[in-house]
Design a protein that fits this description.
This protein is α+β, with helices and mostly antiparallel strands and about 180 residues long. The protein is about 35% helix and about 25% strand. It folds into 2 domains: about 55 residues, no CATH class; about 120 residues, 434 Repressor (Amino-terminal Domain) (Orthogonal Bundle), CATH 1.10.260. Strands 3, 4, 5, 6 and 7 form a 5-stranded mixed sheet that branches. A two-stranded antiparallel sheet has the order 1-2. α1 packs antiparallel against α5, α2 packs across α4 and α3 packs across α4.
Length: about 180
């Protein structure tokens, strides 16, 4: 969210929402919370800070595109999805837990236990969720998701750990994953 602005002559001044003082803008790494227990790093986030009260606000460019970038990386992740990643992908599909569970052919309690990490993720259910997300974005004409992305859904293996990644907003206005 960008701080409110006040016209000052020909230019705008960003003002703190807490105290009304002018904010300072900087570009820095920011830990972006994806779900309650999972975050990624945005390498070049615009951060507004108030020198008077210490309030900090972060502006995220094209949040829908950031969501698609994260989803693309999850679909291609070689390990099983973690519970937080399942929750994130379910939210990408704009589905409630009961609805997704029904589509997957499982009990909603089972999906809930996958999301909380109480149950180890079933590889078949994992692949179905990935395929559903890929098809959902393909159906909406997303430039991030292509038929190739959908065809490259991996057979997950290994321990389900949340994906650690850093992203940046490139000069062409596209979110990209930073090289590890």
């Amino acid at each position: 969210m960008k701080p409110r602005s006040k016209k000052s002559g020909a230019r705008e001044t960003d003002l703190c929402l807490e105290c009304g003082s002018p904010m300072r803008e900087s570009t820095e790494a920011h830990k972006y919370t994806v779900t309650r227990k999972w975050a990624i790093t945005i390498a070049d986030a615009k951060v507004y800070s108030c020198p008077k009260c210490g309030e900090r606000e972060v502006s995220i460019h094209k949040p829908e595109a950031l969501e698609r970038t994260i989803a693309t990386e999850l679909i291609q992740k070689p390990a099983l999805l973690s519970g937080d990643e399942v929750t994130f992908l379910r939210n990408c599909l704009a589905m409630k837990g009961r609805q997704l569970a029904k589509e997957l052919g499982i009990q909603h309690e089972t999906l809930s236990r996958y999301e909380t990490g109480f149950y180890k993720m079933n590889p078949t259910v994992d692949r179905l969720i990935r395929a559903m997300v890929a098809l959902w974005y393909l159906d909406r004409g997303s430039e991030t998701f292509t038929a190739e992305t959908a065809a490259n859904i991996v057979t997950p293996d290994g321990e389900a750990k949340p994906l650690k990644m850093t992203v940046y907003f490139d000069p062409q206005g596209v979110w990209r994953r930073a090289a590890a």
